[in-house]
Predict the 3D structure of the following.
Amino acid sequence: MTLFDSPAFEGHEGVHAFSDEKSGLKAIIAVHSTARGPAAGGCRMWPYASAEDALTDALKLSRAMSYKNAMADLELGGGKSVIIGDARTQKTPALFEAFGRAVEGLGGKYWTAEDVGVSVADLTYARRNTRYVAGLEGHAAASGDPSPVTAEGVFRGVRLCVRRGLKRDLDGVRVAIQGIGNVGGHLAQKLHAAGAKLVLTDVNVEALRRVAAATDAEIVAPSAIFDADVDVFAPCALGGAVSLDTLPRIRARIIAGGANNQLADAETGRELFNRGILYAPDYVINGGGIINVAGEIRALELGEAFDPAWVDAKLDRLALTLEEVLEQALVERRPTHEVANEIARSRIVGAAEKRAAA
Ligand code: NAD
């Protein structure tokens, strides 16, 4: 299959491959859309089995960023970058400096930030060679790690789904969290504080034990998380957690979590709907982090300090958007992800038409 035939390519404006022999950088930056503004989305470092796997991931993630940024009502398009490599053993300052040069080469078409495997410290090296980096620390416009804000948005989304789907509050609700990293860890703390009973898993056993101890949670093996007897399943690891294979095992009535690309495919989304499971579309519920990043981009562009109140207002608006999606899906008896896709596409197409007419 060629790049242009790939189902994940759908509508991409540009796909850029970079290699730097000296530092070992192999990276792909996918720009899905700049209709609403410069493409923005994090950088993921992952030991992909092949360049093709990396490409598919970059394409899927960048399209999801276009949808996410549109649903978060940001003046940003969608893009994403992936670095092929093991974040535990292959990170060097030179690698991220080379990545910064790659981002700079796109001349502001793409803004990067953190994603799985990439930290604030890593991006500080990228920043040496490009200004198109957000999610940093130590300057007036800086917004820091976006994960706590992502987790706050997911927390509000879970609470909304529980209120709508189970007609109750979070106290005593059982939630299974797959992946207790940056987002899942903060989410676990917030849910625990709200009285939820947690079942947690992660492949990082040490971190898992730490978070479970702090949140009075039950621990299960990664493969057993789908069978947990819970009300809510919150995928917070990598994509594709909900598939036609795992769905028959999922006992939760609600799926709402922080991971990107939670549904393995569109058919799974349909099947969720057929089974009466309430699904909070991933790129809507997890938009908090990119809102925080957008706050930094905005501050940099305006030459102002980072404004947490602007971020909070956008987070409130995001919760309303999620509610609108759930309500429309209920009224029209349609899967939530289809409704969200439709709204996101119309916002992107609307912006493109406005730009063409200007
Ligand atoms: P992270 O790397 O800090 O956490 C991911 C965790 O998942 C890690 O602890 C990892 O060990 C675990 N994990 C990986 N495979 C697993 C498996 N098979 N079973 C159980 N656990 C597994 O990453 P993060 O920043 O917390 O992001 C988590 C998800 O949320 C990703 O899909 C990311 O794209 C998405 N997301 C993150 C942000 C953000 O602000 N960080 C924003 C939006 C979306």
In short: The longest helix spans residues 308-332. The chain has two domains: 3-63+77-126, 147-285+322-344. Residues 147-285+322-344 form a domain with the Rossmann fold fold (CATH 3.40.50.720). The longest strand covers residues 25-33.
